[in-house]
Amino acid sequence: MTTATDSAPVLTVEGIRKSFGNKEILGGVDLSIRRGEIKVLIGPSGAGKSTLLQSINFLVMPDAGRICLEGRPVDPSDRKGLCLYRQQVGMIFQEFNLFDHLTALGNVEIGLVRVKKMKRSQARERAMAELERVGLGVHAHKYPAELSGGQKQRVSIARALALDPKVMLLDEPTSALDPELIGEVHAVIRDLGAAGMTMIMATHQIGFARALADEIIFMENGVVIEQGPPDKILDDADCERTREFCTKITELGGR
Ligand SMILES: Nc1ncnc2c1ncn2[C@@H]1O[C@H](COP(=O)(O)OP(=O)(O)OP(=O)(O)O)[C@@H](O)[C@H]1O
Ligand SMILES: [Mg+2]
């Protein structure tokens, strides 16, 4: 749990709508996050959590609404501006999306060289520091095939961190992992939160959500049903549907 230090929002999501074909997936979502805040998205499969996170990063192009970073609206048709925005809003996926032909170090370094135009030696130094931050200094020269799922996910977190993001979006970062590997990734995310990183994370890991989140957002059918502090949403929600979902997910032991 963190204390937000700034009252002005870092990121605002205003009236985001998205349909695929004639099916509306996001029906107008508003969200606002302050510096150092951690918001966790929960909701049934198909609620639109991934679509929302991808819309925030414009991997999915919203049909309506806007996203503002530090008060400035993002124009996704401005390629240069979008590229800059994406560096500032890091995205972590369920699958790690690493380059198999590059070592852990190479995977972190490549964005610094290609995107940030850093010199190779400087990029290497920074990449190494980020790998150490996620506890992977000794594995820097291994290829993804030589790393566990938890280690691969930590490399992808290091890769995002190297670009100095202002906000991190995490989409079920541990759901592809064997249970015994989840803890090491949770520990890295917890450390990030303690260091003041602003994060929006979708997860089905309810115990982790409770411990980490400043606010939990319950989504269903593409809209936010209810949001509030973890104990309120998970144990004492106002909406019947939120209570039903949270009871079920809590009884299932956190999945
Ligand atoms: N590219 C796409 N084309 C068509 N439909 C899509 C596409 N992406 C997502 N959908 C649909 O949008 C709905 C919301 O999906 P989304 O992946 O955002 O849900 P979710 O809340 O992340 O679910 P989960 O908990 O299973 O990850 C689903 O019905 C899905 O089938
Ligand atoms: Mg999803």
CATH structural fold name of the domain at 9-97 and 166-251: Rossmann fold
Bound molecules: adenosine-5'-triphosphate, magnesium ion
- For the termini, the CA-CA separation is 21 Å
How much of the sequence lies in strands comes to: 15-25%
CATH architecture of the domain at 9-97 and 166-251: 3-Layer(aba) Sandwich
Number of DSSP strands? 10
**What is the CATH superfamily label of the domain at 9-97 and 166-251?**
P-loop containing nucleotide triphosphate hydrolases
Radius of gyration: 18 Å
Element order: H for helix, E for strand: EEEHEEHEHHHEHEHEEHH
Protein name: Amino acid ABC transporter ATP-binding protein, PAAT family
Main location: membrane
Organism: Desulfacinum infernum DSM 9756
Family: Belongs to the ABC transporter superfamily.
List keywords for this structure.
four-stranded antiparallel β-sheet, 255 residues, ABC-type amino acid transporter activity, binds magnesium ion, binds adenosine-5'-triphosphate, ATP binding, Rossmann fold, transport, alpha/beta, 10 strands, six-stranded mixed β-sheet, ATP hydrolysis activity
Overview of this structure, please?
It comes from Desulfacinum infernum DSM 9756. With 255 residues, this protein is of the alpha/beta class. The protein has a domain at 9-97 and 166-251: Rossmann fold. Helices cover 38% and strands 25% of the residues. Strands 6-7-8-3-9-10 form a six-stranded mixed sheet, sandwiched between helices. It starts with 8 loop residues before the first strand and ends with a helix. The structure holds adenosine-5'-triphosphate and magnesium ion (MG).
